[in-house]
Amino acid sequence: MAGMSEDVGTEGYLSQMQTNFFGPLNVTNAFLPHMRGRRDGRIVFIGSRSSWKAHIPMYGPYAASKAALNAAAEALSAELVPFNVRVISILPGALRTSNWTNMTLLPSSPSSSLSSVREAYATTRDASIAHMSTLHGKQKGDPALAAEAIVDVVRGEGSAAGRAWPEMLVLGEDAELDIKEKCRSVEVNLEEWKDVTKGIAFEG
After folding, report:
1. What are the transmembrane regions (predicted)?
2. Residue 65: is it exposed, middle or buried by C-beta count within 10 angstroms (0-12/13-18/19+)?
3. Residue 52: inside a domain
């Protein structure tokens, strides 16, 4: 799903959260008691590199839902250690699937003024939609190879044989580059604002 944040409103964000965040959590909570009972299990959450790259117009609802899923995965990973249940968040880049042809553009929020909001964002929105239309069929990621990598990690076989369990698995060079760029920008921000960051401590 995609849409300008003000245009889709909280209703649009909630719609995306229901699918990408609450949906996986509800499924997880349904089978988690069985995994805890047998003290063994593997939970795989399909996140996205968009959770590290949310600064693209119309990706807000999607990126936010995937960022929330990443955070929940981290929390569950820590909570389930005593039960030998492992959690992994998969962060794929662009995979050559049919997702772009099936992309849903979120409608305007009922609480927003359709005409004024749409008009205000028309240029950015149209440019974003035009860009999205060029992406299908050009993704460099092979979904079959991505699935194979995930299965290897879950089973501890193939490329994952003899390696420690990763709480995060990035798939695709594009995803790797985006995440590295985000990390660099965070480091720059911390360095530039370190005086303010450290300046809120009590004296003495």
Report:
1. none
2. buried
3. yes
Name which of 6, 76, 26, 16 is nearest 51 in CA terms. Answer: 16
Range of the domain at 74: 5-190
Structure tokens at 199: 């300046």
- Segment (H or E) for 146: helix 143-155
What the block records as the tokens of 27 is 């499924």
Task: Count how many residues are written for the chain.
Answer: 204
Strand partners, 170: 91
In a domain, residue 20? The reply is yes
Each residue of 75-120: pLDDT tens digit? 999 999 999 999 999 999 887 776 666 666 666 665 555 566 778 8
Neighbours of 187 (CB within 10 A): 10
The reply to whether 198 falls in a domain is no
**Which residue shows structure tokens 């936010």?**
64
Average pLDDT of the chain to the nearest whole number: 89
pTM: 0.86
CA 50: distance to chain centroid? 5
Distance CA 51, CA 62 (A): 8
199 domain-assigned = no
Higher per-residue confidence, 127 vs 108 = 127
**Which CA distances in Å does 159 have to 18, 95, 149, 151, 176?**
34, 19, 7, 10, 18
